[in-house]
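Appendix B, Record 12. Input sequence as logged:
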Amino acid sequence: MDTDIAALTTVFTEFYYWITVALMFLIHVGFCMYEVGASRQRNHMHTLMKNSMIIPLVTVTWFLFGWWIYWAFAGGPGITGGIGHPAPDFAAYYVPWSDGMGPRLDDRISGVFFAAFLLFAWTAASIVSGAVIERIRSFAFWIFAILIGSVTWSIDAAWGWSYGGWMVELLGYHDAYASGVIHAIAGGTALGILVVLGPRLGKFAADGTPRDIVPHNPWLVCIGLFLIYTGFWGFYVACNVPLATTGYIDGQLTGATQTATTIYLTPTTLGAITMNFLMSLAGGMLVAYMMSKGDAFWTYSGGLAGIITASAGNDLYHPIQAMIIGGIGTALMYKLHFWVERKFKVDDAVGAVAVHGYAGFIGLVIAGFVLWGHPSSPYEGFAAINPWGQFLGAIIMFWVLGFIPAWVIAKILASLDLLRIPRQVELLGLDFHNNREAEAARRTVAEAMRSDSVST
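Logged structural output:
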């Protein structure tokens, strides 16, 4: 730190990312509450622990290889450059045995930046967790958590959510607040698992008509979603670089003052994204309230879908655009959720595929049209934002890196009988080993079965 200004900037940036980590922790708390509230009482502890174990599993694997993948795979590798392109020194710096992964007085930023990205990884895995409650084996889910948290999300962020990512350079891909790189890939991953996992017992009638399995505790769902909203403030802020100078980005950005930038190093302000966050939340909630006829679960979920839809371009939209786009994405995801449920018998327990996956996909496509021609990067030679690049990017996020890997692994686990819990356990409840009420129910059922066999 050569000057007082440099020292102040460094300390501010360090504290900035540290605060975002604390706020984003609330997203995970919210997901745990939300899922427990949506599950039935006999499955509460299984639901809670299945999600909670994301924290140690993804943290360790993110340290061992997830963080390195982000810095190593921006060029493909082999599309616009080799491993480490465009900054091979960074890739070497972030291997787990490097000095860069330990405490250093001359590097105050890497640790908190690592943690912010780790919380993004937790979020991606938690999104998947809600969709598969009440029937998946914990072991199987934890494999998927590591897959998305430390592998596929790391790859998609390297490709489409870094200043040198090949998707940004060649496609003009723009996804400032992660409609695709977190939400679409998580929705696609969840869908890939669900089509193999199958619905919960009793979800569909004999004629295929879906039944509504209502949340056990709507208040817990409500509080959980509001905590997710709160954590999203940290999520949005963590997507920015708090202070950058023209020299920091090689002089391609004109102007002499320091500015906040997106992950692509394009200028933005906290004021702009704050207004757009609130307006997209409002658009989503209003539309969801009307379409669901005041259903609390879908109203709150619609607010989240509104934010997710507009997130791809919320650094550049006008607030009225953010509100309208949030409303459009919410309406489409709501219709798609029930159409897919009826048509393909997909049981998405909390609407995660719709709220995150469909809304994220739609948001990417809309951004391509609304922001058509706008620079995707401050660097010369990068493609401008365009509909085709955004649509192809959405395909890569949802299907190529989301659905396909999850579907393949789900098929392998299912073939080994490691994906889904036994039918008898699902009927009695996943908590019956440590839940007295469920254990009593198990004994009652067993005695009734013995009585029936004796009487016959």
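Residues 4-420 form a domain with the Ammonium transporter fold fold (CATH 1.10.3430.10).
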